[in-house]
């Protein structure tokens, strides 16, 4: 066998001997599981001799080296275990006794197995020495260590998660005594701090653990100790108060107190060893012992009992009773004097309160004595004291109120309820829990339920507690149970609904008798409800309320209608109400002739109907009468129009809202328009624009706005019958009133036909144009008072669209004068640049096109006539064109300005228009192309118009528009413009180099309309793609130019 380095083996052996010496000495110092570690020490001492023998032979074989290394590792493991047993707390070692013993066995067995591997050569072939080593190895492999019986019993008890272990103080006291004896703390009653220190050390030892066993042990042991310590922790009064007590009270004898409960015994019994306990306490202890299958022992001495017979101590019991009766009365009197004397020490209050608490728990008769001695008012007064005093007072008051209606009444007659609510609002979790528990106890009295509900904020605060994410689940549970008790009172149910707790009201509405349902419906109609509550009530109670509409009593129907009106105000409830069958009874009452249905109920019906038609419900297809009519049937619409003209303002306003809902629906608006026309009602609807009441005027404007997209000409004709309504609309635009009304008015006027020039003239007469400019400026400068931001976009778009209509009537000198006065060319250019709204940009571009088209007609008298141009110069390029006289517009050949002639160039609108050519909205692109095309018309200098577009980099985006072919109109406009641009030879040669342009033109030639094909052919000629003598399309050039520029034939 090949050996290893001899000095290394010798050094390892010597290190092992040193470590064995240290560990053997350490094992001697372990006091926990002393017997087990003593056995380990003896084994380690024997191993020392083995290692010495191996070192003598100087065997350097790999086997010997492996044995020494393994022994060294296991000795280190033993050292670590010894360190744990000498540094950890005694309670930690107690709870881990089985783990410690198991590890001790594993280490011993591993060392034994290692020893068995030592070869004969390691002991110089001495067979006797080898046999001795083998016997030691076998002994160590068979070694067994045992957990002490008391340790095993305690661990088994603590591992059980029984309620009796966590709650019964007698059992807990017995366990604490058992632990103390095991830890060697025989003087625990005199020195409880020693065990407390050990528990603190236990918590420190396990602070980083995440093992469920460890966490359970810390929780159980800590809980048991705190409960036992709390029983023994009696507050000490001041010397003065103690002296008063001592004067009236016979001292307590130790023999009266049970060692387990730490309370004066009621039924003392004696064991065979002479120890006396409270019967119930010692019986529970015996029960625990039997359940754990261990011998029954005396909890004080720990000695096993031969007999569990309990001998009643009658003489002691009689003595205790006599002592108790005398002292209890004296303690009540003394406590009263403390509570009424305002002592300077908080401890005095605590002493008195805890003493009274103990008296109540001992004997229920003492609760009567406390009330009879008028102690309840001073106890209630302490709810305004310091925190700990308040908590003890809450606990005592709850004890007094438990199972005692007279005490509940006595507490209710004081100022206790307000003080309890204040305690509920505090941040200390324990105080809130005790306050909630006391309030729950008081709510068991029906009389107090009414008083609690009448206390300002009581129900609101309780509801808030139940809906919060509080960590104190007990307080939340008590608040919930209190609210359930308070439901006995109708007024409380109403308050709960007002606070968002609607379930009690719903339960009464759904299952209560007729009079209760009436009251609940009445409450729903009057209390404010959140959207969530409205939705819940509609889902669960709508069918009940609708059934109530069949009642023969008008009052019942009216209350149900009012409640339904509240629910219908939430848009999402419309579908629920329709499914519940709301439409037939509502329409029946609304159309009822005579006095059977009062007008106030008709108004409610109209309000419900207005809400329903604004919802997403299937009201368009829902039958509302036996004939199968729906809300969009002609008969129904005619009846609604008739009611609008023959009822009061309240109903008229609601019915106008109904028509707004019908007009807002794409499924019903066409029918509505048809029926309004057939009824000839348009003029009567327009007349509502003059109503002085907002509730009439606003829905009227909104209705006409919706109708204007379908019957614009009829509305324009109606507004021209008399200018009063038109003037009203114009004044709305300029008013600082409701933004919704202004937006609807703007939308209405914007939708009227722009080619109705008489209407435009009427708007001029009403002074509309200056108002529009002023309001648009105000919107741009954020001066407008915004009532609702959602209307601002529609308002701004409507204003700009109305202003644009004036650019269609520039043959009217008054309009031209106004356009010049307000510098409309620059105004629209500014809107085009500054707005982010597509429709504003679209209308601004259209207005600029109209103004630019009109520019050539604005030639001043002193402008020189257009100079003659020789044809041969045109072929030499723009650089050789004859120069313009100084000061003249290069395109229009006259003295142009933005203000007077609306020139696109002078108003600096060309670049903003070019920027719109790559807009994502094709409508804006079309309008921008239309405006730029005015620079290429026949009545301007075409060549110089092309120069302007080229300089503005407009040619490339126009080519892109042609190639993209987003719409047919865009293609036609771009082809028209390119045909005129390609007349410039230099540009034609430049553009011809792009093959995509050729392909786009060929596509237009093949697939465009007649005008587009003709223009594409001419463009291809300019590009030299087809012969110039081709004459496929023979159309009048002037017509083509005119149609192409406008984008249509």
UniProtKB/TrEMBL annotation:
It comes from Riccia fluitans. It is an enzyme of class 2 (transferase). Its EC number is 2.3.2.27. This is RING-type E3 ubiquitin transferase. It holds the Pfam family U-box. Residues 251-330 form the U-box domain. Pathway: Protein modification; protein ubiquitination. Gene3D superfamilies: Leucine-rich Repeat Variant, Zinc/RING finger domain, C3HC4 (zinc finger). PANTHER family: RING-TYPE E3 UBIQUITIN TRANSFERASE, U-BOX DOMAIN-CONTAINING PROTEIN 43. It catalyses: S-ubiquitinyl-[E2 ubiquitin-conjugating enzyme]-L-cysteine + [acceptor protein]-L-lysine = [E2 ubiquitin-conjugating enzyme]-L-cysteine + N(6)-ubiquitinyl-[acceptor protein]-L-lysine.
